[in-house]
């Protein structure tokens, strides 16, 4: 009913990739940034409020090592589950990619639970075989969806899966720029 996504604050960029995918599921998400004691010891800062605003979900700080914040994070996820609605989805994709995904969403509306519409549309854009098999779409609809994907691939000069990956990382870099301050490291 809700997702408690625990991420490593010392390696936030890599950990946010899964977070962007989980948010697309359309369920309430609570992101618990773990290892905050280490983040602070390294002289880095993560602004949970800015991270929350950028991701469109609740963000809390925890330290599993010191036993801080874990219970509160779980309680918040349980509370969010009772509300049964996810926040507004962040705008991870841009331009022709977002345009193609919006068309795919339109094409499969009514065939999947509305909460999961974005997740299914992205998976179809990536040409995920399991999702294709699960949805049992007509060959006409598959051809229609594939044309949107091909148009986007031609415009971006890349394959669909790489396009999604690259746009996710571009989005994550923007989120990190807003919410994370890393102390300058001196090379020895």
Task: Outline the structure in words.
- The protein is mainly alpha-helical.
- The chain is about 55% helix and about 10% strand.
- The protein contains nine helices and five strands; from the N terminus they run βαβαβαβααααααβ.
- It has helices at about 10-25, 35-40, 50-55, 70-85, 95-110, 115-125, 130-135, 140-155, 160-180; strands at about 5-10, 30-35, 45, 60, 180.
- The strands form two sheets. Strands 1-2-4 form a three-stranded parallel beta sheet, with helices on both faces. A two-stranded antiparallel sheet has the order 3-5.
- Helix 5 (about 95-110) runs antiparallel to helix 8 (about 140-155).
- It is globular and about 55 Å long.
- The termini are far apart.
- The relative contact order is 0.16.
Proportion of helical residues = 55-70%
- Rg over alpha carbons: 18 Å
Question: Biggest sheet, in brief?
Answer: 3 strands, parallel
Shape: globular
Provide the residue-averaged pLDDT: 93
What series of H and E elements makes up the topology? EHEHEHEHHHHHHE
| Beta-strand share of residues | 5-15%
Q: Order of strands across the biggest sheet?
A: 1-2-4
Structural class: mainly alpha
Number of helices: 9
Low-confidence stretches: none
Total count of strands: 5
Give the termini separation. Answer: 48 Å
